[in-house]
Q: What sequence folds into this?
């Protein structure tokens, strides 16, 4: 019979890869708690209308990337393509926004019908952060500084750069859009098909066209920064000042616009050269209009999302995942002879006495030799050997598998001390 395959662009995360994901996720969770952000979880399936109304009807996502279908009741539902809209919906519905400040984060799968390639999937995963109720540049700076700390913590600060821009308010952006359309319409025949279409639907998106001729044409186009209203200008200057003060390096990119309609004022992206075309690992900005657009009271908001797949690729490329993370077993317990019960008890004792130790107990019997082979294959650092003699004496033999060191038989209490000192110390836990 033909075997069933996964849907294209929806990957399995295999056990040999999951430690790097866990490492990344735990580093981020720790960082977010350092900044007092709280986790929120909301459904992966939402009413289609939620995304249409927030992301914008004429964006790439809503036009061609959403997984939308009718449920059994005939209601149109959509697998979330991003987290911000669902987060706002959940907060509104549970009265978490009005008259209060929220610093929130979430993580999980997102779904977009895109052309799958390296760093671009149809089910991908994000960690997102959203802040409600603060309108100043101080919180924008906090978010950006927090991501900068993360890159440093992960050893990635050398391979990412921050691109920063301000889109101004809806009104100032509208004026700019008119000027841009005016300029580009006069040169329409020099635009590629995609940009010609965008000229009608979402002209700002032409700014980040990858087409070199279009980019050349844009060199003489009106500049977004000339259209910024005074408040947005000040906000942006202050943000830059704060980033200077804390020492986060950035590049102002006047053509950075982001693909979602709800952004205004600050937008930013952390990009890398190490991943080919899929170079944006973290992106976000301010969206002061969205809460109201979704039916709530007008509330300032700012946030970002990072792509976990791309960050894991980047960690791999930079070779910065600690060895102890890639290794999943520290100690392999070999039970040679008629010692099943004693081995079970010893395993439990060690798990109580050496918290954090990753211990694999041999199961399934077999000769001493075959068990030692499995110990080696497990990548463990140490094999603990419980033979009938050791069991009778309350002892265990310790064999280092990756170092030239004579095998030693010792009391279990001494083995506990040794494991705590040597293995857990090296794991950094
Ligand atoms: P891109 O320009 O690469 O399509 P985007 O602007 O659509 O990205 P956002 O909607 O801002 O991306 O999502 C934030 C982050 O989520 C991106 O920077 C990226 O790291 C990740 N991401 C977005 N789409 C995908 C995807 N299809 N597969 C994997 N990661 C993705
Ligand atoms: Mg995209």
A:
């Amino acid at each position: 019979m033909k075997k069933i395959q996964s849907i294209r662009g929806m990957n399995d995360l295999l056990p040999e890869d999951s430690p790097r994901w866990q490492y990344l996720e735990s580093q981020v969770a720790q960082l977010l708690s350092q900044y007092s952000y709280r986790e929120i979880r909301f459904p992966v399936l939402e009413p289609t209308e939620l995304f249409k109304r927030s992301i914008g009807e004429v964006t790439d996502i809503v036009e061609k990337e959403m997984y939308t279908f009718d449920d059994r009741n005939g209601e149109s539902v959509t697998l979330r393509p991003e987290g911000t809209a669902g987060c706002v919906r959940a907060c509104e519905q549970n009265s978490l926004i009005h008259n209060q400040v929220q610093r929130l984060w979430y993580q999980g799968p997102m779904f977009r019908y895109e052309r799958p390639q390296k760093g671009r999937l149809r089910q991908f995963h994000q960690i997102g952060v959203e802040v409600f109720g603060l309108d100043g540049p101080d919180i924008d700076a906090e978010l950006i500084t927090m991501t900068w700390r993360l890159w440093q913590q992960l050893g990635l600060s050398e391979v990412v750069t921050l691109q920063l821009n301000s889109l101004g308010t809806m009104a100032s952006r509208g004026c700019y859009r008119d000027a841009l359309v005016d300029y580009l319409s006069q040169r329409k025949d020099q635009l590629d098909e995609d940009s010609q279409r965008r000229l009608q639907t979402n002209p700002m998106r032409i700014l980040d066209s990858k087409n070199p001729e279009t980019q050349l044409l844009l060199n003489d186009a009106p500049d977004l920064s000339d259209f910024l209203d005074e408040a947005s200008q000040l906000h942006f200057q202050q943000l830059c000042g704060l980033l200077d003060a804390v020492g986060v390096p950035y590049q102002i990119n006047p053509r950075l616009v982001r693909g979602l309609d709800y952004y205004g004022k600050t937008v930013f992206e952390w990009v890398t050269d190490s991943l080919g075309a899929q170079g944006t690992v973290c992106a976000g900005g301010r969206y002061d209009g969205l809460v109201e657009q979704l039916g709530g009271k007008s509330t300032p908001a700012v946030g970002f999302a990072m792509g976990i797949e791309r960050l894991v690729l980047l960690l791999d490329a930079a070779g910065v995942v600690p060895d102890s993370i890639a290794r999943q077993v520290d100690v392999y317990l070999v039970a040679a002879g008629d010692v099943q019960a004693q081995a079970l008890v010893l395993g439990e004792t060690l798990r109580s006495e050496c918290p954090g130790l990753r211990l694999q107990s041999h199961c399934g019997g077999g000769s001493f030799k075959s068990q030692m082979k499995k110990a080696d294959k497990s990548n463990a650092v140490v094999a603990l050997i419980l033979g009938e003699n050791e069991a009778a004496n309350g002892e265990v033999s310790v064999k280092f598998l990756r170092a030239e060191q004579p095998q030693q038989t010792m009391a279990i209490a001494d083995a506990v001390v040794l494991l705590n000192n040597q293995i857990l110390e090296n794991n950094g836990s």
Remarks:
- The chain has two domains: 18-169+229-318, 329-427.
- The chain has a mean pLDDT of 94.
- The longest helix spans residues 137-154.
